């Protein structure tokens, strides 16, 4: 590399050496101090996958409420709002929490009804007086406030578009912005070239706009991923978070994945054993150009899931007695399949139903696109590589966020299914993207990130002939 | 590119002629569009070389600049352009209809209905290519901050009267052209490739001559041969047989013909200005003819059903601009503030979604693309079971079992939409996937307000209908703050909208 | 901005001297003999590289320095590229005007954009770089870079850099280089397209960034290069210079990788039949055979960057290659690569081999939907150009 800008948030050696729990706690204290007593109107927190973002949001919300500051919480999807409300009410059953929702049918998850302190309504006036009111950015945008809230927490702020923040920022005086910079960036279906590179490009992320206009705001990061195993944290950090590195909260050998039934000698079982052992597995199909719903690749994904269940997988981790504890069964709800496109997800679901019967356990497995898997966590994931069998590498398929989401959902292992030849495809990918004048973009390069992930996966390759 | 468009391109490549990708015309085409063919000077920013324009194909006006780097000649050219274009751009200002509009009363803050003017028609401008649209925008930008002698008596190089005004109109048209489905300013290559697929790539379709070669190849030639001739064919002097549709010229023309003629003009050779004029006109004329050939092809297509709805928005946009001019508001700023940019983006996204839906509803060939993508399906009704909602005033909620050969990407609870024969919308929810291709839907709207559904709103066994997973008239988002209420996250209020200063006139303006 | 002087990856490895000599000789043979001059790796060759890094034909001909324009002419498919003298004159005049004061304006813009203090013009070293021949100029540039004093500014006007490409030396001429007092180097590119209201054409900016990235690679090992270059352009509609920063990180990484692939020229050359070369003055049939003996990866993007594109397009079209219709049409076609195969698969003929491709089922559905829609609209579309 000709010249490398030192990552501004490089991990100090002392921090690297410290106990991950203490490092994470120190970061959290600093964030809370800035949020509760700091002089700035905004605080930005970068949180890599599984670094305890929700825990931080819940804690910050409770401490603000306890300090007598009622607050609004802005999340991006209804599922995120419901999850946050559930966590808040579980953490403190006495806390008066309001869930502001839309007037559509089934506007919120009925599980919230079991919390007596949670009040739900489509009208903000009904929720006046609640310590905390949580809703989506889209719903908040319809609210007009006589008096702005003193405090707000904006969750998933990197997935929020700048114009969505513009619509709600008048509702609060100061805010804590929390999000994961490595996941999928917001986008627009229409041309936005005329604003690209300008500080208030409405299609960029809320955090980009916020920092462009308020460069002096304190920026923190959560330094430890509690989700990703030691085998994954370094790769995901290097490839997708070059400017905000993080580490795993667990060490090598702290988590174990194993199968009760022995391997049957097939490549599918071999790659499962490799992934159980190393945390990564690559099931490589012969090179071929295929349509998106490549029947062989889809079939391989389904067989992997099927065999994992058939072989009675089990996991052991710090959650259930440690690496030598009794562990838990790797049930279907702890497995996910990730794809780039919806039709691929549909094809995988169909293949799973065929293999295991519609009511078989395989039907319980989550199969979805990267966009819909954002923020979710599983023990084992099976990923259909976005570039598998493709004749070209489009910007959509190269987007770092997509690969980052797919490669960072697992607590134990990730198995990637891919046609051979992706490295060559990347090498032949034209590098003619338009370039804007201006400051350096903190996003990693999709092309380099893909190469890094491929290089790592190549060490755990099993060929399916 | 959708697989269906790719397939149309393959058909075209195989048969040597363009193939349709639309069965109706999805853009408004005025009875008398203003066709504008501009050329610019290579290497100069916003130095026009000439333009051919008019609404009558047999009587175009041609203006040229004998020395494009001479500021006075450029201003004289722009002055004539303004005199030629403004009568057309202003021609629809006065014939209005009165419409009702919701507005926020500035005193009470309440939404009230007011009567407003809406221009009955709006002038349409057609240019050859996408870069031609950009050039209109650039011309607008270069003119709207100029000052005339009347506005600024001390100006060293005053612009001719009406030049800044033309700049504001062109800026408005250029900005409107960014709105999906708008038709005030369109490029011919864009229009033609929206409706036909050629046997070449989208990149090659940017060449108007090559695109038309596939649509109407001269006798005996296949599309590919005719396109090649349009791209590369040269005469004995090395000049292109089909000059580029602009705004850039062919370097061989610049070097071999234009530069010597301009040099003669610079030396004061008599008749040199006329020589440059004729040279530039010779480059403009073939494109002028091509533009009208394109207009003819488009006219042969019947207009799509939703085009008048969208054209009404163009008329609104035209009327708003007229009102801003009449209110003597300052020219459009160089850059949008945060609120304006967000409003524009929200509006364009809504228009895009609306356009996508309307094109599909208007055109079975476009709906086919959505059906193949699993976003719509054609279904036959197998069974209808009447049901009602719970509550004090039960409403009809019939359950309709349908069967389709299509493969929609559906999951439980998904909302579905269809257009009733009356044009009204109906919504349904997916209740159950009953079997392969078989779905049970619950109709939840579009049946009137009564206890029993209005006649014709509930399908019958054997009916065929097209359901879409996308909304047909997507709602706009919430309001945004006024610019003066821009929050701190977006830099705070932009301050008083001070009049933008004109571009400084410098000695370096002209080399 | 901070910079690290430690290269994270090793620079492109030069081949051993003996091999290198052999490669140089082999490449000269490919050009048609030692007397045929080597074409420099100019901006167009770099653009062609970026637009189609996977094309072996382009890689070999550009790598060997073959005059592709002459080859295209001899093949009967001349490239339509040319430059208008108006653009040329304007570009040269702008660069001359910007440099007229000995670089004061350039340094002022650089300081404005990097936040450095503007130096007193007397405190700036402007070394003399003229010499006979490119090797001499490159040597002078190298010396000037090595000798640049710590603690003061050095401005290099029209330096010449040498870069090992594919086993031979390519000379590159940045518009200017500035050595900062901290010892780092900024690349300065002067372009005649405007920066209008703070933004410039992103396609042109992208090309400038790729060009600057090659200079950055050529500077490797000499001095630490700042990863943002300064782009100097006319402001708005004037001829006044203004600047903007160009971020090079991604371009450097991509170009480095692409240039490494160029070092595999020997492999491509080794697959050529005995005695094949690309001298434009040979028998047209022999030249055609020579060009056809290296596989090409044509795509329509080549048309704006590669002199041979019209020749390659002609071949791709006659072979019925689907990519002639655009890279994006291939997305859902699976292993089907020709128009005939696709149409056969779409027609549903079960006897055709194409019907067995996994893409065939979707193609059949697509063709059926298309036929259904066209039939439904038949009367309406009759006057269209498709009716014959």
Descriptive notes:
The complex is a heterotrimer of chains A (465), B (511) and C (388). Chain A has 465 residues and is α/β, with parallel strands linked by helices. Helix content of chain A is 34%, strand content 19%. Chain A contains 16 helices and 19 strands. In chain A, the strands form four sheets. Chain A has an eight-stranded parallel sheet. In chain A, β15, α11 and β16 form a beta-alpha-beta unit. The longest helix of chain A is centred in the first third of the chain and has 18 residues. By secondary structure, chain B is α+β, with helices and mostly antiparallel strands. Chain B has a six-stranded antiparallel sheet with strand order 12-13-14-11-10-15. A five-stranded mixed sheet of chain B has the order 4-3-2-7-8, sandwiched between helices. A two-stranded antiparallel ribbon of chain B has the order 1-9. Chain B folds into two domains: 330 residues, no CATH class; 105 residues, Thrombin, subunit H (Beta Barrel). Chain C has 388 residues and is α/β, with parallel strands linked by helices. Chain C has 15 helices and eight strands. In chain C, the strands form two sheets. Chain C has a six-stranded mixed sheet with strand order 1-2-5-6-7-8, with helices on both faces. In chain C, β7 and β8 form a beta hairpin. At the B-C interface, α1, β1, α3, α7 and α8 of B face α5, α13 and α14 of C.
Question: What's the arrangement of secondary structure elements?
Answer:
The complex is a heterotrimer of chains A (465), B (511) and C (388).
Chain A: H1 13-17, H2 20-37, E1 42-46, H3 53-66, E2 71-75, H4 78-91, E3 97-100, E4 118-121, E5 132-136, H5 137-140, E6 149-154, H6 162-168, E7 172-179, H7 206-213, E8 219-221, E9 224-225, H8 230-240, E10 247-248, E11 256-259, H9 267-278, E12 280-285, H10 295-310, E13 313-316, E14 328-329, E15 335-339, H11 342-356, E16 366-369, H12 370-373, E17 378-384, H13 395-398, H14 400-407, E18 410-419, H15 422-427, H16 446-458, E19 461-463
Parallel strand pairs in A: 1-7, 1-8, 2-5, 2-6, 3-4, 3-5, 6-7, 9-10, 12-18, 12-19, 15-16, 15-17, 17-18
Antiparallel strand pairs in A: 11-13, 13-14
Helix pairs in contact in A: 2-3, 3-4, 6-7, 8-14, 8-16, 10-11
Chain B: H1 3-15, E1 19-20, E2 34-40, E3 48-54, E4 61-64, H2 71-89, E5 96-104, E6 111-119, E7 125-127, H3 130-144, H4 163-176, E8 185-187, H5 188-195, E9 196-197, H6 208-215, H7 223-232, H8 251-266, H9 272-299, H10 307-326, H11 338-362, H12 364-372, E10 376-385, E11 399-404, E12 415-419, E13 425-435, E14 438-443, E15 464-468
Chain C: H1 17-31, H2 43-51, H3 56-63, H4 68-75, H5 85-99, H6 104-114, E1 124-125, H7 133-147, E2 153-157, E3 161-165, E4 168-172, E5 176-179, E6 185-190, H8 202-218, E7 228-234, E8 241-247, H9 249-262, H10 265-270, H11 284-292, H12 309-318, H13 339-347, H14 360-376, H15 378-381
Parallel strand pairs in C: 1-2, 6-7
Antiparallel strand pairs in C: 2-5, 3-4, 5-6, 7-8
Helix pairs in contact in C: 8-9, 13-14
